């Protein structure tokens, strides 16, 4: 089986003792499904989780092909994810409906998008049953991890769900997926060139678990190939699939999406939340993450090279006096009821309360700035790197390139609101504490991103 090196995946699984026991990746991998399911014999009742979207490849309809590979006589029910004006949104009603429909199943088998997979993992967690995942596009890294992105009170939240017991990645299926899904995968993969710096910062301040560069290096190695391989070749598809799969394993191994989800993912979540709140469409998660990765890399470059973060002292840092008002202001136009603002304020208040309790970590971090700066430069790539990957693969580079296009004022709004949405600490929070998070900085970041072809 070609594709993801079984030795590399096996080393990951063994090194961190991951519950995901099998990754079958390469052309024709779908044919391994019967052998994978044999590990769960007898399957008393199988629930096939889908969203009803037709998925085709050279072998025909993917869901039909999966049904044809199931052991004869296997009791099978279909769990179709609820869909609304924004497609399938993993809010409380959608998860509850999935749980009700799958109740009694001894195994879940998901076939579809990253959202369908997140739903299956969440339902499997609540029912305490295993889940096998058939990946249908190289669009996100969430197929291979143990977390799900849910919507609570209108806000995007990431929480623990369950590990897939097995992951099947058929490259023939990936190659047949719509190009926009593959380009979205490139965008999600591009986060590897900026998000680890945000994670390192949080860890160095004592606000997250210990940073582990060993977890991330295989992801960065795979991503490097994406910069040189011809996107039309099997080598390039393998590099993309590997980057995403290893990224999911890394997220699972660290127990937090923070290892590969920083400011760039926050920007994407903010765009999603704004679109959901005002009833408009938004682009795919990965497409937005790619555009935002160029912006996030530009922010890191400015902070490290122009703004002299290392010259700060702990006494220079404090939350603004009007913090709550600033949080609520971000959301008032989108949700006048205040429900969304209250959800975000609870998270932001928790974040800065934790920071206050860990001020000693900030003092140590700034006192040993030279060592930390070297590491941050290693993980915060120049914005030209994600921009080069996006351009090479034909993925969106600017907010205006997204479908639908994000207008400049909404893009600026998303950047301004970066510190005011969730409890995870990033560079935006440090700059807010330093009194530097303002419209002038947002414009500088957008201008720097524009020099690579990104930004507005």
UniProtKB/TrEMBL annotation:
- InterPro entries with a match to the protein in the record: G1PDH, Glycerol_DH
State the organism named in the record: Pseudonocardia charpentierae
What top-level branch of life does the organism fall under? Answer: Bacteria
Give the UniProt keywords, A-Z. Cytoplasm, Lipid biosynthesis, Lipid metabolism, Metal-binding, NAD, NADP, Oxidoreductase, Phospholipid biosynthesis, Phospholipid metabolism
- Name-wise, this protein is Iron-containing alcohol dehydrogenase
């Amino acid at each position: 089986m070609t594709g993801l090196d079984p030795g590399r995946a096996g080393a990951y699984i063994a090194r961190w003792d991951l519950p995901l026991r099998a990754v079958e990746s390469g052309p024709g991998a779908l044919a391994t499904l019967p052998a994978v399911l044999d590990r769960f014999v007898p399957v008393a009742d199988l629930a096939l989780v889908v969203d009803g979207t037709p998925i085709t490849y050279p072998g025909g309809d993917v869901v039909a092909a999966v049904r044809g590979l199931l052991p004869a006589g296997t009791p099978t029910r279909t769990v179709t994810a609820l869909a609304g004006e924004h497609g399938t949104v993993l809010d409380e009603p959608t998860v509850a409906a999935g749980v009700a429909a799958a109740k009694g199943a001894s195994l879940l088998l998901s076939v579809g998008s990253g959202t369908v997979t997140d739903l299956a993992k969440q339902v499997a967690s609540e029912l305490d049953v295993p889940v096998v995942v058939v990946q249908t596009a190289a669009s996100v890294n969430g197929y291979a991890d143990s977390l799900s992105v849910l919507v609570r009170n209108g806000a995007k939240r990431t929480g623990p769900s369950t590990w897939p017991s097995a992951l099947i990645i058929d490259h023939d299926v990936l190659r047949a997926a719509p190009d926009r899904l593959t380009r979205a995968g490139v965008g999600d993969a591009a986060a590897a060139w900026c998000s680890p710096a945000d994670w390192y910062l949080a860890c160095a301040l004592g606000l997250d678990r210990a940073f582990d560069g060993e977890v991330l290096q295989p992801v960065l190695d795979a991503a490097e190939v994406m910069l040189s391989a011809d996107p039309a070749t099997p080598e390039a598809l393998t590099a993309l699939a590997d980057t995403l799969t290893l990224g999911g394993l890394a997220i699972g191994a660290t127990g937090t999406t923070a290892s590969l989800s920083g400011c760039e993912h926050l920007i994407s979540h903010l765009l999603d939340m704004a679109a959901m709140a005002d009833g408009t469409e938004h682009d795919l998660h990965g497409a937005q993450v790619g555009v935002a990765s160029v912006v996030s890399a530009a922010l890191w470059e400015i902070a490290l090279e122009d703004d002299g973060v290392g010259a700060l002292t702990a006494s220079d840092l404090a939350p603004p006096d009007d913090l709550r008002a600033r949080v609520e202001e971000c959301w008032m136009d989108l949700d006048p009821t205040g429900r969304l603002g209250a959800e975000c304020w609870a998270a932001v208040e928790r974040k800065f309360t934790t920071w206050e309790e860990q001020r000693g970590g900030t003092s140590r971090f700034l006192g040993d700035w030279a060592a930390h700066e070297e590491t941050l430069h290693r993980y915060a790539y120049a914005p030209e790197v994600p921009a080069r990957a996006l351009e090479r693969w034909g993925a969106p580079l600017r907010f205006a390139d997204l479908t639908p296009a994000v207008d400049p004022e909404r893009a600026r709004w998303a950047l301004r609101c970066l510190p005011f949405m969730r409890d995870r600490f990033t560079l935006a929070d440090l700059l807010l504490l330093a009194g530097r998070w303002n419209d002038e900085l947002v414009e500088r970041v957008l201008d720097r991103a524009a020099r690579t072809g990104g930004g507005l």
